[in-house]
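Contributing new complexes? Match this layout with iron/sulfur cluster.
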Amino acid sequence: MAELIPLTPAGANAPQEPFKAGACKLHPQTMCPAFGALRVLARIEGAQPAMITDTGCLYGLTFVTHFYAARKSIIAPALGTAELSSGKVQEAAAAAIAEAAKEQNVSVIPVISLCVAETAGLVEELLPSEVDGKPVVLVRVPAYAIHSHPEAKDIALAAVLRRFVDQASATEPGTLALIGEVFPADPLIIDGVLRKMGGRLLTTLPGRHVDELKLVGRAAAVAAVHPFYRQTTNVLHERGVGVVSGAPIGADGSAAWLRAVGTALDLDEEVVERVAQEEEASARGFLASQPLKGTTIMLSGYEGNELLYARLLVEGGAHVPYISTSIGPSMFTAADEAWLKARGTEAVIYRKAIEDDKAAMAHWNFDLVIGTTTLAALAKERAIPAVYYTNILSVRPLFLAGGMIASLSFVRDLLSRKPLYERMVAFFAE
Ligand code: SF4
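Output block (do not edit by hand):
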């Protein structure tokens, strides 16, 4: 049975010691990070992944990939102890690639090299660069080097972009490429606002087709709205595409982002300013009621966009003292972290562990926990309203005033469910 954490922290009336993260960060507590890469690559129409790993990894990763609707087979060699100890990894990889090339309608073969193949030594130079005219792209995502599944998505997208991004064609002025697995309505809303400024959205990655990968090279600028797309952004930056950091999040963030996009796309300053102010005014109109005022919310996830959600909650009036995420810190997380810490956030934990989250739950009294399944279960045992971040919040619009209003209205509804949780705990205590 799970160890119980007191509802009221010890010495709640006394001044509290600052929160200290205590868990070891050398062992990431996440599902196999390679799943992120597999998910991005399996969704590309015409991409036929060949996965080079041992049978155990293959079983687990095939299971989760199909659970998330891959709708295609993952080609893999049978690599057991005998094959590995006799140094057959290279031959096995070549055979799997040849097999993948025989599938119907294949336009690219991503070769996903995992812990075992990387440790045994897979030599890129000995792999074919194409088979029957089908490009072969090596994607190295061993868990000992890539610590979270969002970061594996970045490695995968960067690898295929390096091969496909179209450098030869001319830049289309005023166009923006968006990078991030966003709710489908978000790019449409962003495109609508960009058009009011005189620009437009060219494409959103990770895409569903190789043509979208080629198209991104024609964008005048790229905006990675999720902070872990660092290698992908670098690939485009090296090819001369302008980079906009941050995301159109909340009242402060949306206006600043629109101005930055306007500058990067060289749009009319007056028009951009008018649209940015309109957007900010409609966000502030909603925020005037401070829908989350007086609440304390805990945010913990492994998606990599937790700091963005935390900003919305804070603008909505909530106190968000603790945020944890699976990704590592970078220059793309620095601005959001500084913004949050200037507004009452005490701890931002990168490469989190469940021990950090449990310690935070003992340290503060939360009215709502938005977290992983394990954490949400612990919170529910204590009658705290709790939801699973990935399935509940990450599948809703987030950006600009419209996304903010949708997300905060939903969180306000979650907070109102406290009596239900108390009844549930009382029922099971009887
Ligand atoms: S050994 Fe590495 S690749 Fe295989 S399942 Fe574990 S973390 Fe993933």
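Reviewers usually confirm one structural detail per submission. For this one: The chain has three domains: 34-164, 172-286, 289-429.
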